[in-house]
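Lab notebook, design round three. We kept the backbone fixed and only want residue identities now. Task for the bench partner: fill in a sequence for the structure below.
Input structure tokens:
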């Protein structure tokens, strides 16, 4: 029982978050489930507020970095595409995976989640960077790529940016 308590305390403290970020570098994430399994421990240290992460990828879709970009309240987080672009340029990234949590436990994306995905997609498209997915992490996860919503968003962005 002591081991479980110790593990839980380490998980909640964020100790594992830095380990995940470092050990993930250079690896590929092939499925939304792999992204979820990798990113889920990062939300443990602040599970009562929305937190927004980016996974920055190189041209071979290997992880360059995983960074917490924004943190907010129990039901919202302000997200600024400009800040994501700055990190993309810093890491020399060619693609990103977006991920944020819903402390409510419901992984269903809100209209705001779709709106920010569109804004980020437009900003990144303008500099030749692709959004591979946007995961909403909660009790389980929702993948905009797997659901087909990301393709719809990307099609709309292509119409705008042509």
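Proposed sequence:
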């Amino acid at each position: 029982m002591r081991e479980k308590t110790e593990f839980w305390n380490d998980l909640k403290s964020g100790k594992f978050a830095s380990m995940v970020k470092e050990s993930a570098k250079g690896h590929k994430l092939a499925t939304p489930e792999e992204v979820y399994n990798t990113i889920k421990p990062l939300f443990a240290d602040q599970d009562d507020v929305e937190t927004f992460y980016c996974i920055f990828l190189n041209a071979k879709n290997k992880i360059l970095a995983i960074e917490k970009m924004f943190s907010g309240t129990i039901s919202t987080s302000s997200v600024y595409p400009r800040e994501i672009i700055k990190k993309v340029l810093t890491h020399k990234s060619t693609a990103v995976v977006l991920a944020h949590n819903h402390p409510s436990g419901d992984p269903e994306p809100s209209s705001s989640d779709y709106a920010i995905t569109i804004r980020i997609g437009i900003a990144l498209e303008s500099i030749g960077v692709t959004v591979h997915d946007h995961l909403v992490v909660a009790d389980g996860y929702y993948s905009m790529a797997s659901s087909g919503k990301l393709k719809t968003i990307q099609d709309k962005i292509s119409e705008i940016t042509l």
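Keep this in mind before ordering anything: The first helix runs from residue 2 to 13.
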